[in-house]
Amino acid sequence: MHYEVWRSLPDMFFRQAEHRSGQPFLWSKRDGVFQPITYGEAAQQVKLFARGLRDLGIRPGDRVALISENRPEWLVADMAIMTAGAITVPTFTTNTTADHQYILAHSGARAAIVSTRTIAKTLLPAAIEAPELEFVVSMEDLGLAQQPTAPVVSWAEVMDRGEARPDDSAEMMAELRRDAVCCFIYTSGTGGTPKGVMLTHGSILANCMGAYHLLVDYFGVHKEVFLSFLPLSHAYEHTAGQFFPISIGAEIYYAESVEKLTDDMATVRPTIMTAVPRLYEVMHHRIMRTVDKTEGLQKKLFLLAHELGRQKYERPGSLTLWQRILDLVAELLVRRKVRRRFGGRLKALVSGGAALSYDIGLFFTALGVRILQGYGQTEASPVVSANPPGRIKLRTVGPPVKGAELRIAEDGEVLVRGELVMKGYWRDAQATAAVIRDGWLHTGDIGEIDDEGYLKITDRKKDIIVLSGGDNVAPARIEGFLVLQPEINQAMVHGDKRPHLVALLVPERDFILDWARANGKSADLAALATDGDFHRALGGAVDRVNARLSRIEKIRRFAIVPEPFTIENEMMTPSLKIRRHKIRAAHGQMMEKLYEKATG
């Protein structure tokens, strides 16, 4: 591969397309069946769309927002924006109108590309308010009853405009530089205000190179098939699920939906798949639920396969002759069936975006499914380290990928250096200077490096919740909304490594007194904490907050704490005056019950 030679991501794409013109590239379901677009067809669409954007006035350095579910048009639009010398600003389809308003205004987007009517309902009101936005491109008919303030241009019209212009794609690409910014990925900061991470062509290419060298020595990289289901607006999927497959000439299938992912895996039969811990948690749950319903020899064989696989990983070389014979039987009758759930030809599952539970990783490892846990940050494009296929250490996130330099600061913080590091935060020189010092990215994570060079993350220095699905959530923002409600005095939101958020709440004293008086009950909070009617009354405040939050930020369950939290400093805002680690220690059992109810 030519990672160090390619001048830009479009340069890489068009060179690959030239060599693989007739090869299937992007697969999506049409009329219920996966149908392909070849590399050559995709390249032609990218050129037309890039010229169409130029015809609409997009110039190098302009920002173009992209809001869509995963589909071939996502890649075409992304590549076309970059080919035109502009900067892609991907945003999540789950964003609220307020989220879109902030990102469109902060990025200074001149255009936005949206896929469906549903997404457009939250985007278009924000587009009207965006000061620099000039037009919106719609992939599908939005069925607008009246023309909004921001002109809406159809996907077909952009293509037609491109068709009418001379092919100047070579000239456009000649202007691209490896160190030029190609996208802003917005990520939450500790205060809850999203920051625009400026990634360059070179930083993403460096990440792709690291991924290639991680895999190539163990099982080669050729004729690979990826199944894309994580949001392409996330840096993890954007790099590992889109640009890395392009760099190795792979095929990309777009999953129909998360709900149909298991069926899609059986149909597509991917060879490499990027996923987050939440997928493995769900599949573990489904497999064990099936096992619990199974009786007799079949159940015994499964448990034997798991136990022997666990022993092989934790105590290599410890199997007796008889156990090795049983292990061979388990391989034939159990592990092959488990692998078929993933399509049957999977070389590796890559886990990133959040910490993978050791027990979940060991479960699949014992059953013959290879999971490569990695570590990264949006600010590092995003992959920093990953376990190599031939030497997996489940309690670690592996050694640094090729091109990434790691060291541990005196206070234990993980520092990263290399081309993969972002150029900085858009319009935030102060925040940039705080995290990039002397060329080193200060990750905010605490870790250690073992004697084999493997990184282990031991704690989080910065206060950001990472859900098991890989989504970053700023708890201070949600807590701020909660304590603004007249019923709530203090709030703590939690959900790190969990699929959902839960909250611990301390009600306002006046609310307690008023409610107790109106309902003829004692104002003793210890008694009211378990009162169903009082819980529902306080739940009205949570419902109001949830109504203004995106799906991943919503509070799934909450519990009432009988006594106020300890205050760090009376002058701090209510959302930040909580000693989090002490609260987790004091109320850990309560939170565990909330998680059980939230996922039950």
Question: What's the structural blueprint in terms of helices and strands?
Answer:
Elements: H1 9-19, E1 24-30, E2 33-38, H2 39-55, E3 63-67, H3 72-83, E4 87-90, H4 97-107, E5 111-114, H5 117-129, E6 135-138, E7 152-154, H6 155-164, H7 169-174, E8 181-187, E9 195-200, H8 201-219, E10 225-228, H9 235-247, E11 251-254, H10 261-268, E12 272-275, H11 277-293, H12 296-314, H13 321-340, E13 348-351, H14 358-366, E14 371-376, E15 383-386, E16 405-408, E17 413-417, E18 424-425, H15 429-435, E19 436-437, E20 440-449, E21 455-460, E22 465-466, E23 472-473, H16 475-483, E24 488-494, E25 501-507, H17 509-518, H18 525-528, H19 532-546, E26 555-560, H20 580-599
Parallel strand pairs: 1-11, 3-4, 3-5, 5-6, 6-7, 10-11, 12-13, 13-14, 25-26
Antiparallel strand pairs: 1-2, 8-9, 9-18, 14-15, 16-17, 17-20, 19-20, 20-21, 22-23, 24-25
Jot down its keywords.
alpha/beta; Rossmann fold; GMP Synthetase, Chain A, domain 3; five-stranded parallel beta sheet; five-stranded antiparallel beta sheet; 42% helix
